[in-house]
Amino acid sequence: MRSEYTGLMRIAFGLFLILALPGHATTGVQLYVFDCGSLRAEDISMFSLSNEETPVRELFAPCYLIKHPDGLLLWDAGLPTDFAGKGEFELEPGVFVRYDTPLADQLAAMDIEVSDIDMVAFSHMHWDHVGSANLFTESTLLIQRSEHQSAFVAKDNELFQPELYMELADSNMQMLDGDLDVFDDGSVQIISAPGHTAGHQVLLLRLENSGTLLLSGDLYHFRKSRELRRVPVFNSNAEDTLKAMDKVEALIEQENATLWIEHDKALADTLRKAPAFYD
User: Fold this and answer.
1) Domains (ranges, CATH) in the chain?
2) pTM above 0.85, yes or no
């Protein structure tokens, strides 16, 4: 009887070690999805898609909060806070935006203050992904070195709006030169995927019950973008974008992951929004 008990204990301990290794989901990780606005474009040719190739014109602007036993990570920060509460309005000819409730208010409804966020990371620094960035001066910014150079130093992209994020310039930063295992347990991984911008990145999440998810950033904007491997005309480097697509698609296959195209409004409409979560 004692030997059987010892054998069972060894098996249980072995399973514990396997599950604790990087590459396996970590108990207690939760993903929250926030509605941080939407965009509607009458002409989508800037995405290297013809208006006849897809009927989709509306794009979702998400914010995500990852709650890990070792801290809180914000991924992407949606449209500019100044847009909130104005209803839909025309931002420029043929482009309309809407943002109902500021991210800070959505967090507060969950009893989370912006100062509670330990780390922030943006897929890239375009204006529709950093709208609330300036709120998080007490958080550590996880950013690719190349993206920092483009956004904070050179400011060399017309889709960067430095006034939305420059208050982070003197905040604590962790410069990345590639992929990062954020909590050192395999559950939350930043994956370098340059091309849309110099330091564009995506986020891989291994969740206990929901499986492996990959948040796309702007690697793709539409489902058709992925199907047809189209590179938007405003990407910083088309060749790098195609390489990033190859890298991410291989990772999706390897990890049996589900890709969430962040701007996919049809997908977003099916997702549970905070305070509900995925785990």
Assistant:
1) 27-268 (3.60.15.10)
2) yes
